[in-house]
Specification:
heterodimer; A: alpha/beta; 3 domains; 14 helices; 26 strands; B: alpha+beta; Alpha-Beta Plaits; 2 domains; two-stranded antiparallel sheet; 5 helices
Chain lengths: ~450, ~180
């Protein structure tokens, strides 16, 4: 069997790794990875930490060149796949090479969205999505930086540059930073924390132009002009569709896949940042371009290639943000995201704001659909995610919480812990010893 | 996939008395200090119901912490244990938040995470298990025996519940002297 994987990122390598480790006829599988870049696999999530000097450049790599040799994976570097012929089962690359396949995996991810701003091609404008760009940014000497866009990459890039001693400003078009990940309350808290560390945060501002003759001199928004010598563009990732479109594969925002990660063409799978899939909790179409989703999708694709009938449970957002000593986490839907997909009476919010931290849980029909936590509450985020997966009705839970021990002797301790975290114990005075243990 | 020959720490919360000896043993083994903050095993206390649950890394087969770590610092060892590579960890705590148990622990000095490595460099086995010999709430068993042992314990418990042990009349003889 010949498997060709387009893309040497996290999803592509996970497919290759899974095929090698779990394939019953593993040694018969001929695996080829086509990469548009010149490096062995690295992790884009770790690039900001390399730019900020927290880790060495070596730490961003997930694989060494030896790994590919030892695993008998044919790695083709710096040779971008440009077209697919699904009839002949062939992939063509820009250097004119042709690779035949039995199964093809599209895992080439996305490319950075470059907003149509005048001056975007000036010297001193960087991104932080691919290693080559991160290398340039890490080697750049500047003193004032402006980060355009406040998604996960933008926030981390801002922190990295601050650590390097830059004066940093971050500009967000929408009303608050990280608008797709956090609700307004948590986001404003984080923005205040960033300001406390000396990062300027401007929200509801539109960048009109990047000024300068050959290199960047300033960034002009609709409200102000910020002098700077470095600009980092972090305005989101566009899924790579052109390659799939050469094969006539159905695409919307991203490549469309079913719950087996199979595209509309036979034996062509897709996974990672380039696919459009469904939300694990609500079932709506979504694109959460996050690492854990890429890994899970890649495993599903690999298992199906091996002939298993593996179904994807759906994508879910999970992200964390940390600025120096403030830690925050978010999972699932935000309030805004939830309001888009259900009626107002279906939405519920549980909020806790104490000296130790902040917690907000978003409920859909009484079940947890998402949440955000800062500080001490964040340590229990995993327990709340467990509740989200199990679909526990929070109203029922609150009613029965004190009786948990009596309900079922094998009730997991997490149930009791969550009641404790949410402060149910303060409402109900201890009632002597309960018979059964959790 | 067949289970590998691995040994795991099996926790029986029903037997835990909340003495925190396991925490002390862990801190002693790894850092040479007797302080629960340095322990990779932690006891969740539910004092009003007198219940204590030791929490340690379960080395999940499909571990969430490995998937979410931005630095790929969470790694699975040959022994099956999942640990943090301290050279790569940046202390972002993604693994703590993603863990369904909240098992990874933050080192109080470095801010990096750490989790159970099964004391793999000690042939006597994990120190926490040794510290729990009295209570037997922690056991270090072959992963293939773990489920079987659990079933056996449960059957024994049911038996006990349904037929109370026969009370034999025993003659006690006390001998003590009053001075």
């Amino acid at each position: 069997m010949k498997v060709v994987i387009v893309g040497n990122g996290i999803a592509g390598n996970e497919v290759a790794l899974h095929l090698r480790e779990h394939g019953p006829r593993a040694d018969d599988i001929d695996i080829t990875i086509l990469s548009a870049e010149r490096f062995p696999e690295y992790d884009p999530c770790s690039l900001p930490y390399f730019v900020g000097g927290e880790v060495d450049r070596d730490a961003v790599f997930r694989k060494s060149p030896d790994y590919y040799r030892n695993s008998r994976i044919n790695l083709v570097l710096d040779n971008k796949a440009v077209s697919i012929d699904p009839e002949a089962r062939e992939v063509k690359t820009e250097k004119g090479d042709v690779f035949g396949y039995d199964s093809l995996v599209l895992a080439h991810g996305g490319s950075l969205f470059i907003p149509p701003i005048p001056g975007i091609d000036l010297d001193g404008v960087f991104s932080c999505k691919v290693l080559a760009e991160a290398d340039r940014l890490a080697g750049h000497r500047g003193s004032r930086a402006v980060v355009i866009g406040s998604g996960a990459i933008g926030i981390e890039a801002a922190e990295a540059l601050k650590l390097k001693g830059y004066q940093v400003a971050i500009i967000e078009l929408l009303d608050w930073i990280m608008p797709t990940l956090f609700c307004e309350g948590a986001s404003c808290f984080l923005a205040d924390e960033m300001r406390r560390y000396g990062i300027e945060v401007y929200t509801s501002e539109k960048v009109l132009a990047i000024e300068g003759k050959s290199s960047v001199k300033s960034v002009k928004t609709d409200k102000r002009e910020i002098p700077c010598d470095t600009v980092v563009v972090a305005t989101g990732v566009v899924p790579g569709r052109p390659l799939a479109e050469t094969a006539g594969i159905a695409c919307e925002r991203g490549i469309l896949v079913n719950d087996r990660m199979l595209t509309s063409a036979a034996d062509i799978y897709a996974c990672g940042d380039c696919v459009q899939t469904f939300d694990a909790v609500s079932g709506e179409d979504c694109m959460y371009q996050l690492k854990h989703n890429a890994i899970e999708q890649a495993r599903i694709a690999a298992r199906n290639i091996l002939g298993e009938d593996a179904r994807y449970r759906g994508a879910y957002p999970f992200a964390r943000a940390h600025y120096f000593d403030t830690h925050a986490v978010t999972f699932g839907k935000t309030l805004k995201g939830l309001e888009k997909i259900c009626r107002p009476e279906q939405v519920g919010v549980i909020e806790r704001d104490t000296e130790q931290g902040y917690l907000r849980l978003l409920l859909k029909d009484g079940k947890i659909a998402g949440g955000q936590a800062i500080g001490a509450f964040a340590d229990h985020a995993g327990l709340f995610m467990g509740f989200m997966w199990r679909g526990v009705d929070m109203n029922e839970f609150k009613k029965n919480w004190r009786k948990i021990g009596e309900l079922d002797s094998v009730f997991p301790w997490q149930y009791r812990k969550i009641g404790q975290v949410l402060g149910f114990s303060a409402l109900d005075a201890p009632d002597g010893m309960e018979k059964a243990r959790v | 996939m067949a289970l590998k020959e691995e040994r795991v720490i099996v926790i029986d919360p029903g037997k835990c008395a909340g003495c925190h000896s396991c925490e002390m043993a862990c801190a002693m083994k790894h850092f040479g200090v007797c302080h629960p903050y340095y322990s990779r095993i932690r006891i969740q206390e539910f004092r009003n119901v007198n219940t204590f649950v030791p929490i340690t890394c379960q080395a999940c087969e499909d571990a969430a912490c490995i998937k979410v770590c931005p630095m790929n610092a969470r790694i699975r060892l040959g022994s099956g244990a999942v640990v943090t590579d301290e050279d790569k960890c940046i202390g972002c705590r993604a693994c703590v938040y993603a863990c369904p148990f909240g098992a990874p622990v933050i080192h109080p000095d470095t801010g990096k995470t750490m989790s159970c490595d099964l004391c793999m460099d000690d042939e006597l086995g994990p120190w926490c298990v040794k510290a729990c010999t009295m209570q037997q709430a922690l056991k270090f068993v072959d992963v293939r025996d773990a489920a079987r042992a659990k079933g056996r314990d449960f059957a024994a418990m049911l038996k006990e519940q349904h037929e109370p042990p026969h009370q034999e009349e025993t003659e006690f003889s006390f001998s003590f002297s009053v001075e």
